[in-house]
Design a protein that fits this description.
single chain; 352 residues; alpha+beta; conserved putative lor/sdh protein from methanococcus maripaludis s2 fold; Elongation Factor Tu (Ef-tu), domain 3; OB fold (Dihydrolipoamide Acetyltransferase, E2P); 4 domains; 6-stranded antiparallel β-barrel; 3 helices; 23 strands; elongated
């Protein structure tokens, strides 16, 4: 190949590269701005914290037991939603029905006896007024009447006990809830205090957590703490602090109110407990952080809708927010979604 031909070939290759670069630049200029979600950097009260385990429980979780010795005739299915006072299990009541009938008959008998003795007493009092009756006979009738009236009261008490026994052959829900477990089967013979069925109220939830004793001085009742697990999070208020720590584990108990529409009974959670006094710091959502080998940064959106990558140093963390130090001011919008392919100078549009 001659020198002039080689020169022309190289020149053509350079022109082709320049054309590709020009097309790429033109294409980049014509690309629409990236869409991102932003949040403002804010001054917040944060404190160093430690995550402690907790469990979501119901404040109304009962294992209902039999109050009689009888055979189980019926029991509600697991998953049944019941209202307060609804029957969730029923015992065979033949024997208790007979006891009630017997007690009713005894009351009627004592009533008849009392009625007779009252009539007899009135008759003898009229005769005694005319000196036609012995005083001793009247006194004996008065005594018999007092005994009969006491026997009637005893019979009424026995009837009340029989009626109570009939009433508690049906085990009733003490609160609104859902049947979560059947502890006995139909046909089994029950003794007094045998557990029959478990009832849980899914709408009265709380979290029970045990935290280190060195955190108790940094929270109080009605304080808000961050609650989270792998699926969801919520900022919840402290309902009560059990003021006695365990000397073996050096832990104390905290109970927090939670939203039943977010959490379920039995769910494991993590609770962020402060370990020092809160400080006012500049914080951004954790989702805004870009973690790279060369360091941590965030993308700040400028007034002209271009982005600028700003290096930051992280500090205190509290739930979804974390302290940052860098060239950021309170109110600066930082990208929390869509930052993966951004670079300094790119145009963006904001998603509400």
């Amino acid at each position: 190949m001659s020198k002039s031909m080689m020169t022309n070939t190289i020149r053509a290759f350079l022109f082709s590269i320049l054309g590709v670069a020009t097309c790429a630049t033109s294409f980049a200029q014509e690309m629409p701005p990236a869409t991102v979600v932003v949040a403002a950097a804010k001054l917040r009260q944060l404190a160093p914290s430690v995550d402690v385990p907790g469990t979501v429980v119901s404040r109304y979780d009962a294992r209902l037991a039999s109050e009689l010795s009888a055979k189980l005739a019926w029991i509600a299915e697991v998953g049944t939603a019941v209202k307060k006072g609804d029957t969730v299990a029923r015992l065979e009541d033949f024997t208790f029905e007979l006891h009630e009938m017997e007690a009713q008959s005894r009351v009627k008998r004592e009533q008849a006896r009392v009625q007779f003795l009252r009539s007899e007493k009135n008759r003898l009092e009229k005769l005694a007024a005319k000196n036609l009756s012995a005083k001793s006979q009247l006194d004996r009738t008065i005594s018999d009447l007092a005994i009969a009236e006491a026997d009637e009261e005893i019979a009424r008490a026995q009837l009340g006990l029989a009626q109570i026994s009939m009433h508690i052959t049906q085990i009733r829900a003490p609160f609104d809830g859902i049947v979560t477990e059947r502890l006995r089967s139909i046909g089994e013979r029950l003794n007094i205090a045998d557990e029959v069925i478990r009832l849980v109220d899914p709408n009265s939830l709380e979290v029970v957590a045990r935290a280190p004793l060195n955190t108790v001085n940094f929270i109080d009742e009605k304080a808000f703490l961050e609650l989270h697990n792998d699926f969801r999070q919520e900022r919840v208020s402290v309902r009560t602090i059990v003021p006695f720590g365990n000397p073996q584990s050096h832990m104390f108990e905290v109970r927090l109110e939670v939203n039943p529409e977010i959490w379920t009974v039995g769910e494991s959670v993590r609770l962020s407990m402060p370990t020092a006094v809160e400080e006012e710091v500049l914080a951004v959502p954790r989702d805004a952080l870009i973690l790279r080998r060369e360091g941590t940064s965030v993308f700040k959106v400028n007034a002209d809708m271009t982005v600028e990558q700003v290096s930051v140093i992280t500090g205190l963390g509290d739930g979804s927010y974390i302290e940052v130090t860098g060239e950021l001011d309170p109110g600066d919008p930082v990208v929390t979604r869509g930052a993966e392919r951004l670079s300094t100078g790119m145009m963006v549009t904001l998603i509400p």
